[in-house]
Structure formats: structure tokens, C-alpha cells
Amino acid sequence: MTLLELSGVSVHYGRIKAVSELTITVNEGEIVTLIGANGAGKSTTMRAISGIRPVSAGTITFAGEDITRLRADLRVVRGISQAPEGRGIFPGMTVHENLDMGAYARKDRKNLAAEMDHVFELFPRLAERRTQAGGTLSGGEQQMLAIGRALMSKPKLLLLDEPSMGLAPQFIQQIFRIITEINKEGTTVLLVEQNAQQALSRAHRAYVLETGSIVKSGTGRELLADESIKEAYLGVA
Asked: Which keywords does UniProt give here (predicted)?
């Protein structure tokens, strides 16, 4: 079943067209990844889906509902949650308080303690640091916190924007293992990632963006084997 569909979506920054007539589908239960160079329009696409950036043309449909003009907070209520590029945690709040902020839009607050326990199971480091201020965590721990906070809204669709950016190799491996685990537990994932090797090896399907347009799509395995993708994104000549 199609959970998310972008149909002919364009996004402008003033006169600059950052995304051009994008058509993407994400099916329930998938990990779908968007790869591309800096400035390709990946993060802009994520902002359009989450409602942070308005679209100038096209439609966005989520779970059968047209959400193109829906406010960002109401998209969270519908089941879309994002761990943004740059993490965006609240540095002066504790780990526990940051996670609690992730559940601000939820009406069913009776299960919050169990949800938080589950986040701590996924990220034991956060459990060890639950009373520590978010701003004192390492980069990898802050990324874990950003993902954990997004999970606290119990999303149907988790948007992850550059989760491995700036992380040490051991943290990158850990983050991608947890993304796979989250997906196996039933959460659909749309992933923007510059680490194409990791992203494509985990993704069911993938799209390649160049200057705001899709130039290739296929399964993760197909694109990993594609010679032009290897040369452009995997460092294989």
C-alpha cells in the first residue's frame, strides 16, 4: 500500500527552483532513500513533506489524504515525524525532556513511559544520560536523541535527514543498524543520506536526485550495482 506520494512537486526559494516536478512513492513498511550531491534538493524535499517548506506546484498525499497545504504540526498528528539535518535538539533540556518534547502532539499520553523505555532500549547510551543536558552529548549521541525524539510521536513515516553526517565510523554503523531495526518493527522510513553505500545497502528502493530532479530510481541493490552510481557516489571508478 502506498503511504506517501509526491506527484509533480516543485519547490522554490524565491525565483530559484530547488525541486522540479518530483514524483516519488513510499510504500508502507519500506526504507526508501534519496541520494544525491549537495544542493540536489534532498533536504528541500524532506522539508516539503514535513510541511516546513511550501510547495509551489504538485501534490503530496499521505495515507490517502491530500496534505499539500496542511500545517506542519498537523502532519505530525497524522503520523509524519522528522529527525532534521543538523539534529535540532534542545541543548538546554535534558535527554528525558527532549524525548518528552517529541510527544507534544500526541493525545494518547498514557503509553508515553513505555515509548520512552523503548527508545532507551534502542539507544542504551541515552538511558545512561537521561538527566544530562542535550548540548553536552557527543555528535553521535545527539543524533540518537534526534531519532529517539522523532520516534516519541509514534510515526507511521519517519523522515531522516542526513543521520550519519559528521559522525565517527562506529556511530555510523550503529545508527544504520538501528534504522533497520526501527523499520523491522513496522515504521516506514524515508532517508536522505550522503553515505550512499550505507543508504543503498539498507534501502528497499532508492531515488537519485540531481539539481532538483530524479535521474534514476530502482531497488537499493540495483543502484549499488549501477556503474554510474558507483562512480558518482560510491567512489568507485
From this structure: Amino-acid transport, ATP-binding, Nucleotide-binding, Transport
